[in-house]
Amino acid sequence: MRKYSQKSRILSSLLVCLFLLIWQASAMRMDAAYILPSPVQVVVRLWELRGPLFRAHLPATMQVVCIGLLISLVLGMALAIVMDLSPTAEQALYPIIIASQTIPTTALAPLFVLWFGYAIWSRVLVTVLITFFPVAITVFDGFRAVPPEMKELMQTYGASQAQIFKKLKIPAVLPYFFSALKMAVPLSVIGAAIGEWLGSQNGLGYFSRRMMTQLDGAGVFAPILLLSAAAEVMILATGLLEKHFLYWRNTETSV
Question: Is 184 helix (H, G, I), strand (E, B) or coil?
Fold first, then answer.
């Protein structure tokens, strides 16, 4: 298993290197940095802009990501629990949850700015709108995946609904929760960037848009690279939490 994992990492690294080489060659051939800067130019620009990016804009974006992700987790799990406890609630809420994802986020973001101004909550709402859906649906699927015979067996032994929820449903739904979390993390970063791009005065999305107005291609890509790195770190942390809480799972399904 360890050899397979190491081989996968090597293959992934080679593919990343190949992508960067193709990108570098394409940028050199085009020779128009304001349209397609090379990876080297992006890294250099990131270093030049490290002051405002790391001191001001990255913390602003991560604040939106953390608040939006926390609200999405609470809201998504609450909806999943309510739908699991009440079939009537499921019939009422499920179509609304699905319909919420059919509304273009780029159309709602300007409205949020009108309602809340350039305050953090307009960006948080965009993040929540994008992020809560996979949490609610995936966790609810986890509840539905609990074998009915296991529930009936516990009821036979006199277990209450609270005991069934604590001893059976929560352990059964944990793998689904971490799967939802690994989907929600990158979506929260995307949501924060969209909110900042469409209506904000700080953050990495705002900074990227500002660089675009200055025809600074490398400056546009630099905060995007930083966003990607932040999402990777958060996903790595999620994987470590999953290993800690789901230590009983097979290694190949825990990452």
Answer: helix
